[in-house]
Specification:
This protein is an alpha+beta fold. It contains 11 helices and 17 strands. The structure holds zinc ion (2 copies). The site of one zinc ion (ZN) has 4 residues, from loops.
Length: 436
């Protein structure tokens, strides 16, 4: 069948117009709601809380979601919450926002800058700042909830919104799962999460169809020796020298043992030993972060660190019953990896709603990590997509005058990034819960 060309053009025009009208209406609804979201964002930014102590943030998020008709389960993994909204038959979609701030003293400048302090889990009084943008994540989660309630006739299934504690300490996701998150509220079919990212232009979306972030593990090595006088090294063993040899020997793991085309990283971030120049102490403590892009490399790095530490001490003459303790923290995180098929589906939905211009290319630029995989690498595994939303004005990026995450000067452009975060996440949610 041949179509009349004018009719065909008219049909295309109607189709384009309809899709634009729909996208515009979501964009407009988010713009209308933005003053509400902005005041929530400013409140959260001015009132940050430390990891696993997000009590007020959790209360506020619970209140926001309850008001919208969500059923909220509290105190999952201490301050975590899961809010569910059943809206007919269909799959269950989890959307996660992490809630914690960092022990960083915010530099003044913003009228909503934080001046908060909080006693941390070790009992130390600390400044607190949302220096990673998790205030944007909580705000966006509320923004998505408000749109999804409004658009209830456009989707079917169950929406589960999670406020997660303790991402910065890489233990919060695991804490929620081991505390029975899925037994209490059900096992989701898909999961989504976002992070505002300073290095991308504000509002631009970036993600891959596979690996997003590296794995991260923390290792402590305690080098124990018999202490002696600084002038009589031959009467004991020096943990400062042995610890230093371990630090250098660890560098060979990445350069000589791991396949050179496979990313791997070992950073000894802290080395503590000794009290005085003339005392050879009995303990050196090394605190190490270990990153990899695959589980095989991750396992190889951890095994090699143990071998290097133990045998360096052996070579120095440390007796078998005093060999170093090599302790791998249970709060390590695996790689964050998007489900390829789901990522393409989500990208398609975002692109139809926001246009191809909404995206910037994604590539790994460092070995940052996330604990979101601990929420989805469960049995059965939950296919998931993690995406980034740019947070810095393009002209600021161009000038180079912008602060990275965890800096006391970190700040995002709230309006552009929150609007884009809410729109992208809502489009993804509508797609995954769409009525067939
Ligand atoms: Zn962070
Ligand atoms: Zn973060």
């Amino acid at each position: 069948m041949t179509r009349h060309p004018i009719l065909a053009i008219a049909l295309v025009a109607i189709a384009i117009h309809t899709s634009l009208a729909r996208a515009d209406s979501l964009g407009e609804a988010i713009a209308d709601d933005y003053p509400y979201l902005e005041s929530l964002f400013k409140h959260l930014h001015a009132n940050p809380e430390l990891s696993m102590q997000e009590f007020k943030t959790s209360d506020r998020l619970a209140k926001e979601l309850q008001q919208l008709g969500f059923k909220v389960a509290r105190e999952i993994g201490k301050t975590g919450l899961a809010a569910t909204l059943h809206n007919g038959d269909g799959p269950m979609l989890l959307i996660r926002a992490d809630m914690d701030g960092l022990p960083v003293q915010e530099k003044p400048g913003l009228d909503y800058a934080s001046t908060q302090r909080q006693v941390n889990l070790e009992g130390k009084d600390m400044p607190v700042m949302h220096a990673c943008g998790h205030d944007m994540h909580v705000t966006s989660l509320v923004g998505v909830a408000r749109r999804m309630v409004e658009l209830k006739d456009q989707w079917s299934g169950t929406l589960m919104l999670v406020g997660q504690p303790g991402e910065e300490a890489l233990g919060g996701a695991k804490a929620m799962v081991t505390d029975g998150l899925y037994e209490r509220v059900g096992h989701p079919d898909f999961a989504l999460a976002l992070h505002v990212i300073a290095k991308h232009p504000a509002g631009k979306i970036a993600f891959s169809d596979g690996l997003m972030y590296s794995s991260a593990d923390t290792v402590r090595i305690n080098v124990r020796t018999r202490a002696t006088h600084g002038a009589s090294p031959h009467r004991g063993h020096d943990p400062v020298v042995i610890g230093s040899q371990i630090v250098l020997a660890l560098q060979n793991i990445v350069t000589r043992e791991i396949n050179p085309i496979e990313p791997a990283l070992i950073t000894v971030g802290a080395f503590n030993a000794g009290t005085a120049p003339n005392v050879i102490t009995d303990l050196a403590r090394l605190d190490i972060t270990v990153r990899a892009n695959s589980e095989a490399t991750r396992a190889q790095l951890l095994k090699s660190i143990d071998r290097v530490a133990t045998n360096t001490a052996r070579a120095a003459g440390i007796p078998e019953d005093m060999l170093p303790e090599v302790i791998v923290s249970p709060d390590g995180a695996p790689t964050t990896t998007n489900d390829a098929e789901l990522a393409r589906r989500v990208r398609g939905a975002m692109e139809r709603g926001m246009g191809a211009d909404a995206f910037v290319d994604w590539h790994q630029t460092d070995m940052g990590a996330e604990d979101f995989p601990d929420m989805v690498n469960v049995t059965p595994p939950i296919p998931s997509v993690y995406f980034e939303v740019g947070g810095t004005a393009p002209e600021q990026l161009a000038s180079g005058e912008w602060a990275d995450h965890h800096s006391p000067l970190f700040r995002i452009e709230p309006e552009v990034s929150i609007k884009a975060g809410v729109e992208a996440m809502t489009l993804a949610a509508l797609e995954l819960l769409r009525k067939d």
